[in-house]
UniProtKB/TrEMBL annotation, chain A:
This is ABC transporter permease. It comes from Plastoroseomonas hellenica. Its main location: membrane. Residues 95-305 form the ABC transmembrane type-1 domain. It is a multi-pass membrane protein. Keywords: Cell membrane, Membrane, Transmembrane, Transmembrane helix, Transport. It is found in: Cell membrane. Belongs to the binding-protein-dependent transport system permease family. It holds the Pfam family BPD_transp_1. The chain crosses the membrane at residues 9-30, 99-119, 131-155, 180-199, 240-262, 282-304. It comes from the Bacteria.
From TrEMBL, chain B:
Residues 79-408 form the Solute-binding protein family domain. InterPro entries: Peptide/Ni-bd, SBP_5, SBP_5_dom, TAT_signal. This is ABC transporter substrate-binding protein. CDD domains: PBP2_NikA_DppA_OppA_like_8 (cd08495). It is found in: Periplasm. Its main location: periplasm. Pfam families: SBP_bac_5. It comes from Plastoroseomonas hellenica. Gene3D superfamilies: Dipeptide-binding Protein, Domain 3, Periplasmic binding protein-like II. The keyword Signal applies.
Length: 315, 530
């Protein structure tokens, strides 16, 4: 088991290298460069060149990349070109906000979706199943930034009971309503993304398990239906958890639009700003950290799966 | 009595005491602003985030030698004394400007402002190798110091600035250079990032607190040297909100009191919630700079045809009235607007001009952006331009790119982009150089400057040189007016609209006058209690 974890972590190294290299290349393939955002639109070419030299952006791309890599290995992510702040501080702050949002959203999504999926799976083929499946399809299809705006209109603008954007302050205080209220709309919006997928996975897993022989045996042994369901759920859980883990990874990096609409200072928002300003150090650092989170989340899901279901052997 | 009861009783008394006690002090008045910027503008001197950075951070934390008079809404804003009380050209040397500094000005850290501090600041902008030299400040300052040669302290309260060529407009450029405290900079070993976290200037607000990326809080500077501009509220909170719908919702839900640039289609909704909508003309230009070397716009008739092909009233209507029709380069309230040729909507005439020029259908390509500072609503507006030009005989290809990429095309000039016939970058026009010279002076041909399409005209160059060497304001005004009229005569751009810069604010705010400027004075604003 231990050896397996180590091997998986070592396998993450080429992933990290690949991700960072592709990201570096993409940024430089796109027209425009980081120095532009530092300068007024009317700055002349001489100033641009001088500033590029001052920031070391005039050297060949491979040299810049290797140098960046060297510093990252020693834990130094550099400074943002756009605002001069250390990248690691930027990532820490925004990642904390996004982890909070993503964790709560996945938990909310899982709670809703698992109940819906189980009901649909148990009643496969009935009208109840069709309703739940319909809700799931809706959840997947509704553009979340649209949902965000609709929720803001209802709860912030019309009812005026929840704030429309931002956070209450630097440190999240889970005991303070002042802080919690800022989370509600973004969490609801974000949780709608995985609800559909998790519900559908749960439904198919449950309905598959319910048709297996051991369920018939359990029933034949006279077990009450709720205990049969308990066994079924335990068997259906591994694939659902796998999907949930993947969704967590997606939410970590994929909430750019929702974070922008709610002006939520998370990693998606940071990423979108970094893309618009071609802020390479921030972009590289954030993507690298997100990629690693994805790798670690997948690993964690695998480990949990094999704990729940010993048939899935690891190692 | 049990402990539980005792504690309940105690709590009851505490509650009573709290209810009976008078309020500790009058409620702090706070003005909260939703900015369009994606991040908090830099607080270490000259800000980033474009003119919004100057508007909310630059001119609030700091002063420049020269400031803008933002107290009136009925005339185009002009410069006024700032840290310098007066300035004049050296009678013996028309390349040497002398600035008299204001007495008794103190930085927020208490140190007095003297000529040595101004020289120190200029070295921070320009002298690579000086301990306080800062590449970012260099980059921002550079646009305003193109003609700068050197500075010297003449005495304790006088500095002299030398230019490479005679430059009658130098005082305008001085208004963009924010002066920071050398003492505070020394305290943080000239580390600009550390300085940004605890800045010290001379402005009407002092720094209070910053959450990077989220909020900047400034407080009233009760000792501000301009007694009339000591803020009439206690605290100013600046929040970056790049999404227009986010800003609108934040204002409607009472999270902020003031938002920049609400989307035009949100204005009726804001009005119905009793929000104040203010707007005013300001030196902004939504136009296309044209390619004078390659392609059809080299021909004056084609340029005039394009200008006659647009029905500018349609654009104003599309923008919900939040724009002025752009018939010429400057807004009509500019003192040197003059009497430019007026390009009325006349598609038949446009077609006839194209026929005459032998370009029918006339194929042109414009580089445009999807968004960007001052670009208003670039996609629908460009589509409308395309439709109207095509109705008059053009055939338009829009090359859409992101803002950063368009700026690059703009900076590189037509030389690297011969297939592009025009670029749609909104420009600010706050002074004669930025409003006119840089687009038509051959010395500014890109990539050296903003003359993107390489307009070259010896007469125009002569007028520009003459204006720069004329230090008598009345005489200079005459030349400037001539330049503007000549720009219209030559149809040096395809003009569309000037933005009216709408902003929306809570009905509780009073005392704000929207100046005809990119900058605004927030200090007179009072906030009524809820």
């Amino acid at each position: 088991m231990f050896g397996y974890v180590i091997r998986r972590l070592i396998a993450a190294i080429p992933i990290a290298l690949g991700v960072s290299m592709i990201c570096y290349l993409l940024v430089y393939l796109a027209p425009g460069d980081p120095v532009q955002t530092l300068l007024p639109p009317d700055a002349d070419a001489e100033t641009v060149d001088r500033l590029k030299r001052l920031y070391g952006l005039d050297r060949p791309l491979p040299v810049q990349y290797i140098e960046w890599l060297g510093r990252v290995v020693s834990g130094d992510f550099g400074r943002s070109i756009a605002n001069g702040r250390p990248v690691i501080e930027e990532i820490q702050r925004s990642l904390g906000n996004t982890v909070l949002l993503a964790t709560l959203s996945v938990l909310v999504a899982f709670s809703i979706a698992f109940v819906l999926g189980t009901i649909a799976g148990r009643k496969a083929g009935t009208w109840l199943d069709r309703v739940v499946t319909g809700v799931a399809v809706l959840g997947v299809s509704v553009p979340n930034y649209w949902l965000a705006i609709v929720l803001i209109i209802i709860f912030s603008v019309e009812l005026m009971i929840l704030p429309s954007s931002g956070t209450a302050g630097e440190r999240f205080d889970p005991t303070s309503w002042e802080h919690i209220q800022y989370l509600i709309l973004p969490v609801i919006t974000l949780s709608m993304i995985p609800v559909g997928i998790i519900a559908r996975t749960t439904r198919s897993a449950i309905s598959e398990v319910m048709n297996q022989d051991f369920v018939v045996t359990l029933r034949a042994n006279g077990l009450p239906e709720w205990r049969v369901l308990k066994h079924a759920i335990k068997n259906a859980l591994p694939p659902v958890l796998a999907v949930m883990g993947l969704q967590f990874g997606t939410l970590m990096g994929g909430s750019i639009l929702v974070e922008t609409v709610f002006a939520w200072p998370g990693s998606g928002y940071l990423l979108s700003k970094a893309i618009l300003t071609r802020d390479v150090p921030v972009l590289q650092g954030t993507i690298l950290v997100l990629a690693m989170i994805f790798v670690v989340t997948n690993l964690a899901v695998d480990l949990i799966q094999s704990t729940l279901d010993p048939r899935i052997r690891r190692g | 009595m049990t402990t539980r009861r005792l504690s309940l009783l105690g709590a009851g008394f505490a509650l009573l005491a709290a209810l009976a006690a008078p309020p500790a002090r009058a409620q702090e008045t706070v003005l909260r602003v939703g900015m369009t910027a994606g991040d908090i503008p830099l607080t270490a001197g000259i800000p980033d985030q474009g003119f919004e950075g100057w508007r909310f951070v630059g001119y609030n934390l700091y002063d420049a030698l020269v400031l803008w008079d933002l107290s009136r809404g009925d005339v185009a804003a002009d410069i006024k004394p700032g840290l310098a009380t007066s300035w004049a050209i050296d009678p013996n040397n028309n390349r040497r400007w002398i600035f008299q500094l204001r007495r008794d000005v103190r930085f927020h850290d208490g140190s007095p402002m003297t000529a040595a501090d101004i020289v120190w600041n200029f070295e921070r902008f320009t002298r690579e190798g000086a301990p306080q030299f800062n590449p970012r400040q260099f980059a921002f300052a550079r646009a305003y110091l193109g003609n700068y040669e050197g500075i010297e302290a003449v005495d304790e309260l006088t500095v002299a600035i030398t230019t490479k060529q005679p430059d009658s407009l130098l005082p305008y450029n001085m208004s963009f250079l924010m002066m920071v405290s050398p003492r505070r900079s020394a305290e943080v070993n000239n580390d600009a990032d550390a300085f940004a976290r605890n800045p010290s200037g001379t402005g009407p607000y002092r720094f209070a607190r910053m959450v990077p990326g989220e909020r900047l809080e400034l407080v009233r500077n009760p000792d501000y040297w301009d007694r009339d501009r000591v803020p009439k509220h206690d605290r100013l909170v600046l929040l970056p909100m790049p999404e227009a719908s986010t800003r609108t919702a934040a204002l409607l839900s009472g999270q902020v009191d003031w938002i920049e640039a609400p989307a035009p289609d949100a204005i009726p909704r804001l009005r119905s919630a009793r929000m104040q909508i203010v707007s005013n003309s300001y030196p902004h230009n939504w136009a296309y700079q044209l390619n004078f070397v390659d392609g059809p716009f080299a021909d004056l008739r084609v340029r005039r045809a394009a200008n006659h092909a647009l029905n500018r009233a349609d654009f104003v209507e599309m923008l919900g009235g939040m724009a002025l029709p752009g018939f010429a380069n400057l807004t009509p309230s500019t003192p040197y607007y003059g009497n430019p040729r007026r390009y009325e909507y006349d598609p038949a005439r446009a077609r006839a001009l194209l026929q005459e020029a032998g370009c029918l259908p006339c194929r042109v390509t414009f580089a445009i952006s999807t968004s960007g500072s001052g670009q208003m609503q670039p996609l629908p507006m460009n589509e409308l331009v395309k439709a109207q030009l095509e109705a008059a005989g053009f055939q338009v290809t829009l090359q859409t790119m992101d803002w950063n990429a368009l700026l690059q095309v703009g900076r590189e000039g037509r030389g690297r982009h011969p297939t592009v016939n025009g670029i749609n970058i909104s420009r600010s026009l706050q002074d004669p150089f930025n409003g006119m010279f840089r687009f038509v002076w051959s010395a500014q041909a890109a990539p050296a400057g903003s003359n993107w399409g390489h307009y070259r005209n010896p007469e125009m160059d002569a007028l520009v040189n003459q204006a720069l060497a004329t230090f008598d304001p009345a005489e200079r005004l005459r030349i400037l007016t001539q330049i503007h009229e000549k720009m219209s005569e030559d149809a040096v751009m395809l003009w569309v609209v000037h933005d009216l810069n709408p902003r929306a604010m809570s009905p509780r705010l009073r005392g704000f006058t929207q100046a005809q400027s990119w900058f605004q004075d927030l200090t007179p604003i009072t906030i009524a209690p809820r």
